[in-house]
Amino acid sequence: MAAKNSSVTEFILEGLTDQPGLRIPLFFLFLGFYMVTVVGNLGLITLIGLNSHLQTLMYFFLFNLSLIDICFCTTITPKMMISFLSRKNIISFTGCMTQLFFFCFFVISESFILSAMAYDRYVAICNPLLYTVTMSPQVCLLLLLGAYGMGFAGAMAHTGSIMNLTFCADNLVNHFMCDILPLLELSCNSSYINELVVFIVVAVDIGMPTVTVFISYALILSSILHISSTEGRSKAFSTCSSHIIVVSLFFGSGAFMYLKPPSILHLEQGKVSSLFYTIIVPMLNPLIYSLRNKDVKVALRRTLGRKIFS
Fold first, then answer.
1. Which pTM was predicted?
2. Helix crossing, 57-85 with 93-126: angle to 10°?
3. For the segment 14-28, what is each residue's pLDDT rounded down to a tens digit?
4. What is the DSSP pairing of strand 89-92 with strand 10-13?
5. Picking from 129-143, 176-190, 264-278, which range would have the lowest pLDDT averaged per residue?
C-alpha cells in the first residue's frame, strides 16, 4: 500500500541516535523501561482486580489508564528498539499509518481519561454528599466511552490527513516513530492547511482536557482553602497529589511538542519531548500512584501477604 499519488511504499525511521557505540546500551536501557512499564501497569491492574476496596470509580479510571499505558508503550517501544539492533529500521507505509493511528488513539484517550479523573476528584472533594449520584456507574461509563470515542475520532482525523499527503523519493523519517510533524515535513505537498488541521485537532484534544483539569483543580483548591482543619486540608491534598503529578508530566510534554508551530519546534527537541510522554510517563504512572497512594500500598501488602501465607 502506498500513499495517495505517492511513490513511497515504506519509510525508514531514523531513530534516536546514529552513533553505533550507543545503540546496545540504549537497547537495554529501553528494554528495561518497557519491562518496568508493563510489569508496573499489569501489577496495578491486578491489584485493582483482586482487591474489592479498590473497585471504586476512581480506580475504575486508573484501571483503564494503566491498560492504555501498556498498549501505548507497546505501540512505540518495540519498533523503536529495533533501530538499535539493525542498520535500517524499515516500516511499511501501512505499518506506519497503523502505528500513527494507535499512537493518536491512545494518547488522546489518555488525555480525556485524565480529565475525567480530575472531574471525579472535584466531585468527591467539593460535592461529597452528591458523589454517588453525580458519579454514578452510568455516568462513569459514558465518560469512559467519550474518552475512547474522542481518541478514535482524533486518530481518524490525523491518520486521514496524513494519508492524503503525497510522499516523493525521500522516505527517511527524522524520528523514532511515525509521528505527525515528521511526516508533514517529509511530504511533497505539506502545506499551511495541513499544519492548521493538526494544530486545531491537537488544540481540541489537549485543550479540552486541560481546561477541564484546570477548572476542576481551581474549584478543588478553593474548596480546600475553606476547610478549617489542617488534617482535612492535608487529606484533600494527598487525594489529588498523584493525579496532579501525572497530569503535569503528560500534558506538559505533549503541549511542548504539539502546540508550537513546526517552524519553531526543532524536530530533535520534538524527539526528546515525544520520548518523555510515550515512554517515560507510562513507566512512571504506576510508580506515582503506588508510592503516593495509601490504598494501593495497603492492597499491595495484603496481596503479598496472602501469597506468602498460601
1. 0.87
2. 150
3. 888 778 788 899 999
4. antiparallel
5. 264-278
